[in-house]
Please model this.
Amino acid sequence: MSVGSLQGLLKQGMPTGRRVLPFTIRPMHRLSIKTQRKRQILDITDPVEALLRQHHAAAVGVCHLLVLHTTAALTTADLDPGTDLDMLDAFESMIPKLNYRHPHDPGHVPDHILSALIGTSVSLLADRGSLILGTWQRVILVELDGPRTREIAFGFAVTV
Amino acid sequence: MSVGSLQGLLKQGMPTGRRVLPFTIRPMHRLSIKTQRKRQILDITDPVEALLRQHHAAAVGVCHLLVLHTTAALTTADLDPGTDLDMLDAFESMIPKLNYRHPHDPGHVPDHILSALIGTSVSLLADRGSLILGTWQRVILVELDGPRTREIAFGFAVTV
Amino acid sequence: MSVGSLQGLLKQGMPTGRRVLPFTIRPMHRLSIKTQRKRQILDITDPVEALLRQHHAAAVGVCHLLVLHTTAALTTADLDPGTDLDMLDAFESMIPKLNYRHPHDPGHVPDHILSALIGTSVSLLADRGSLILGTWQRVILVELDGPRTREIAFGFAVTV
Model:
């Protein structure tokens, strides 16, 4: 979220989720990621490292990410060409087609289940502006009900 | 921790898991959650925030939760009415019915597998007493072999 | 990490993943775990606690682990005899056999999917040299494409 878009909300805090979270003094940042399709895997390694370099370029610590949604997930993965679609096909096929109860749209249930199963939080180690990752390892956002703009909360704790 | 190094602490220590964990000086808290059914999804957002407000009301940081069991899990999820049962049905259906080896009760194997797969730890960002979550996002305990009392270890690290 | 900030460290730096990570001043440790089979579950609780006792024997905090690979995963689990093989059988059976696109070896796709699904990071609470775990709970490395040597990054943040 850009600083500019927040100006008008400074006095009364901004509605985020179900609560009003004032942001004036908190050292907590956000990433906004626009997705393009119903289901999609996006490599967010570069924007995470950009935020890291902007705010914690000299620090060694843990970078905590939480996607603030119930039809999206965060994890790490190989992103050889086509692997994103392979993963989405497998996820789709793994969730059984049952007679779901969900009141306003039972069609969303597989999206919710995959979000809870893959998980929405990831904790990554960071060393002076770079994430510590394997050769082929990327940080990914799994969009399960797009296209939407997804918010990811970002926090950084120093390691000792 | 060696048994020897614990001798002086044994009087006020408490048995937790396979070790004796003294609790007098550690800034680590616990949540005990009673479950009611064999399989159940419980919203633990409120007790987590109660603990947060009690001990870290003024801080910005990361709230780490770990459920100390092998037939339970932690994640975040949408909890529209019925979604909890939808999720449990899907989890049940996803785990194949194989000829499991587990010695004292092969019937527990699907519970263990779901615990390992969904995961037992979650790291949440917190801002002066409130968790930073999406509109519909709740922190959930997935009970896979209840009813039992489940222990969740809670740790809080400051972000910078 | 900017190229500039690394100049002085490049001579003694070591290649890790896709970047050169200097290791002289960073308080970040690694575990190397040798695996023996194509698919295998290894109990890494003892080596994690050994590292913990070596570097953070007096601290209370969070121990962050990230396996630096895309065909391996980290989680916690029960390890009664045979449960490791039960889990591997179930994982194998859960991933659908689809016509995958992955360019250099479609046979690897199930390994990648399980890594992303189970997850590669885990955050554990630690109290003066011991992990806080349940009675039967162990920290496990899930090898999905061994035998290999797997690198696990380790970071420790103090809780308050």
User: Anything to note?
Assistant: The first strand of chain A starts at residue 14 and ends at 16. Chain A has a mean pLDDT of 85. Chain A touches chain C through 43 residues (CB under 8 Å). Residues 28-158 of chain A form a domain with the Jelly Rolls fold (CATH 2.60.120.460).
